[in-house]
Here is the input.
Amino acid sequence: MGLLRWEDRYSVGIAAVDHEHQELIELINRLHDEVTAQRSRDAVIGFFGELFKAISAHFALEERFMGERGYDRLTEHKNEHERLLDEIRDIMEDFEASSRFDERPLADALDAWFSRHFETHDARLHKALGSH
Ligand SMILES: [Fe+2]
Ligand SMILES: [Fe+2]
Here is the structure.
């Protein structure tokens, strides 16, 4: 079973951007399926690494786009990205300290974050500038 499910409330109102976000969710779910199948400490650490990479890559794309177009809320938007990455880092550190992988907090953090960030920051960005 996937970690995340696409919800209509995630939509920023631009099909191309929604599609990109859906792909990110699919990728996270695929990585999650792999880690569930393997159930090892190394697999979980690998999962966090890949998750972090995929999300950072998406953020970097948005940040480059905002920079190129001189977006007025670039710093604020970028800070929000940093906050999510910090949160994931904290969850990963907890796992490394305890070796127990409770995926609920991660799923909840990602879900809450995706819905909040998509419907506020990303929606405003893409309404102002279109898709990248
Ligand atoms: Fe985005
Ligand atoms: Fe964003």
